[in-house]
Design brief:
This protein is an alpha/beta fold and 473 residues long. 39% of the residues lie in helices and 22% in strands. Strands 13, 14, 15, 18, 19, 20, 21 and 22 form an 8-stranded mixed β-sheet that branches. Strands 2-1-3-4-5 form a 5-stranded parallel β-sheet, with helices on both faces. A hairpin with a 7-residue loop joins β16 and β17. α3 packs across α4.
Length: 473
């Protein structure tokens, strides 16, 4: 997991008399304790051993810390210090900022915290305030989501999104304005024709495709060849398409992608389900791979949601699917996808073969045939979210849930209702008002990540000028 790179500075009183006679003895031990505390958190900490008290010390420490590529600034104010000096350091660092102080009555820390925070408010500099002891986990619980969000936003700026094809099936909510992305999120968009996948697939060595097919045949729960829709040749071509897509991602330095797929690929070539199954995860037949979030049906905002989720979670696999059916009686949301979902979610295991053993490759019922990557997602906590626009302004709907194993009766009813159109599905128990979900949600697609990252997403939204809307408890 990638950890946020955090700069920590402790500010002290610049007055010589006050420093020598009072604040030095209160500040320096707490500075050392702050370093110990943050080193114990899942962050990459950068700091100095000395307290910064003067303009020269502040400038020098900030410049050295910035050179380390830090993503967040933790301003430690254990005692009183002049607010203008704190503002000087914050403006010079120019990063998302957390102000940290303590609850002790003899330190004057609350006065220092509020003096600096109020000054930052006056200049419109957003920040997080934390007034907690180093002896409890409350400080980490409060600041870690912000540190992860700030690191995610820093990483997002300058990334490149690969859009293969154009709008799919008339899904307007998958379309977006590339220049709005460039301005608001700092993301560049590279447009690539879907036929480039097909062309490049023909250049992939047969040996590499054969290795991919053999790996799936060995490790999947089953590969259900039927001699018509799903044949060894079809699966080999699908593998070539996946390998070609990964090559294009590497060559063009793409960080996350979306592929149109339907109806062009599904009608005339093969569905891009292997890409949807393996790109967002961390492995394939060649071993460990860097996860690349991928949305289906050319859903740009869905892919961007996945990428933000991946970044705030430190690089976790992400999922994409339809917000398909709401079972109000059991507070369960059915999230299937059109033919594949990130394979890691089949078992949530660090061992690829454990995940693959729970997957069936079934014949796709679509005209071109090929494989559907079929499984029920494994139980576990999940955060679901979606970026969407309201009159051109971005919001993000966010809620947490628990992926569950449905009862045999519920699952049998689901299978019968779907008929021949069987898809990979996550069943999510969520304590929501489903009417509110219907009223607020701005798309038919939804994105997700394992674990609970609601606070991280809220902080990321605020840093990105996106309105967060959290549903449920």
């Amino acid at each position: 997991m990638n950890h946020p790179k955090v700069a920590l500075m402790t500010f002290g009183d610049a007055r010589e008399h006050e420093w020598k006679n009072l604040f030095r003895g209160l500040t320096e031990p707490r500075h050392k304790r702050a370093i110990e505390y943050f080193k114990g958190l899942p962050v990459e900490l950068h700091c100095h051993e000395e307290v910064a008290r003067t303009q020269e010390q502040i400038d020098a420490q900030v410049d050295q810390l910035k050179a380390q590529g830090v993503t967040t600034f933790v301003v430690h104010l254990p005692c009183w210090t002049a607010p203008n000096l704190v503002v000087r350091g914050v403006q010079r660092m120019n990063l998302p900022t957390v102000l940290v102080s303590n609850r002790e009555p003899g330190t004057h820390g609350t006065v220092g915290l509020l003096g600096a925070a109020g000054a930052l408010d006056q200049i419109g500099y957003p920040h997080l305030r934390a007034r907690e002891s180093f002896d409890t986990p409350k400080l980490g619980d409060k600041v870690l989501p912000f540190l992860r969000a700030a690191a995610a936003v820093k990483q997002l700026r300058g990334q490149v999104f690969g859009m293969f094809g154009g709008r799919s099936l008339g899904i307007d909510t998958g379309s977006f304005d590339p220049m709005q992305w460039r301005k608001q999120f700092g993301v560049d968009v590279e447009h690539i024709d879907q036929l480039e996948i097909v062309r490049r697939a023909g250049l992939v060595e047969e040996e590499r495709a054969a290795k991919m097919v053999a790996w799936m045949e060995k490790n999947m729960g089953s590969v259900d060849y039927d001699g018509a829709k799903l044949t060894p040749d079809k699966l080999s071509f699908q593998s070539q398409c996946y390998l070609a897509t990964r090559q294009l991602i590497q060559e063009r330095r793409l960080d996350f992608v979306a592929i149109k797929c339907m109806p062009d690929m599904t009608n005339h070539y093969v569905p891009q389900c292997l890409s949807a199954a393996f790109l967002p995860g961390a492995y394939d037949a060649d071993g460990e791979q860097k996860p690349v979030p991928m949305s289906c049906e050319a859903d740009g905002d869905g892919a961007l949601t996945m990428q933000i989720m991946s970044l705030v979670s430190g690089g976790q696999p992400t999922l994409f699917g339809d917000l398909s059916y709401l079972d109000e009686d059991n507070l369960t949301i059915y999230v299937p996808n059109c033919g594949a979902m990130c394979s890691w979610y089949a078992g949530r295991s660090a061992r690829p073969e454990e995940n693959l053993s729970k997957i069936q490759l079934r014949p796709s019922f679509r005209p071109a045939g090929g494989a559907t990557v079929y499984f029920k997602a494994a139980p576990g906590p999940v955060t679901l979210a979606r970026l969407s626009r309201r009159n051109g302004e971005y919001v993000m709907i966010i809620f947490k849930g628990e992926a569950i194993e449905p009862s045999p009766e519920a699952y049998e009813t689901f299978v019968k209702s779907r008929g021949s159109h069987q898809l990979p599905t996550m069943f999510v128990h969520a304590k929501l008002n489903f009417d509110e979900l219907i009223d607020e949600f701005g798309a038919n697609h939804i994105s997700g990540v394992a674990g609970v990252y609601v606070d991280e997403l809220v902080h990321a939204c605020k840093l990105l000028n996106v309105k967060p809307i959290v549903l449920g408890s």
